[in-house]
Amino acid sequence: MTTNAQIKIGDTLPAGSLAEYVEVATGVCAVGPNTFNVADITKGKTIAIFGLPGAFTPTCSAQHVPGYVALADKFKAAGVDEIWCISVNDAFVMGAWGRDQKATGVVRMMGDGNADYSRALGLSADFSKFGMGTRSQRYSMLVVDGVVKQLNVEQGGKFEVSNAETLLAQLG
After folding, report:
1. End-to-end CA distance of the chain, in Å?
2. In the structure, what pLDDT confidence band is assigned to residue 4 with cuts at 50, 70 and 90?
């Protein structure tokens, strides 16, 4: 699934799936990588989603993820059911990064291993000059029942509008 059109406010999220490393088995999920249909897991929920280029990269690890972890309680108090981090990494890497960032149980670390979902959103980026291939642009969005209500896409190399504080302020 690919598209050149960037998703916008009012659009329904595209069909697709994301992978998450599940730390504790439940009746539905086994420990390890589990694949989830985006339409199924957004239905009836309010979700703060942020996307970024890669796990364990400088800005992503020092600022982007920590901001959402630190403000998770405020997002919940504002009516957000879940917070997701989407990156073009596999579920194993996302799980390890989530543990490193103390995000386990706070932010769902969703892997988009082949960048299929980032492409479907129209938010992929070519990071080949850095040896990283196709990645995600840096962005944040608020999604209610699968529909985009807020969208903040960074200009290349910037970290100014996709941070947790900006998205949280847009909730009120």
Report:
1. 34
2. low
Q: Which 3 state secondary structure label does DSSP give 146?
A: coil
Position 142, amino acid? L
CA distance linking residue 143 with residue 23, whole number of Å: 25
Assess contact for 39 and 74: CB atoms under 8 A.
no
User: Which class is 17-171 in CATH?
Assistant: alpha beta
Catalytic residue among 38, 52, 60, 115: 60
Dihedral over Cα of 89, 151, 49, 146: its sign: negative
Does residue 60 have an active-site annotation? Answer: yes
The model carries a pTM of 0.91
- Amino acid at the residue 70: A
Phi, psi of 21, rounded to the nearest 5 degrees: -85, 115
- Delimit the domains of the chain by residue range: 17-171
Q: Are the C-beta atoms of 21 and 33 separated by less than 8 Å?
A: yes
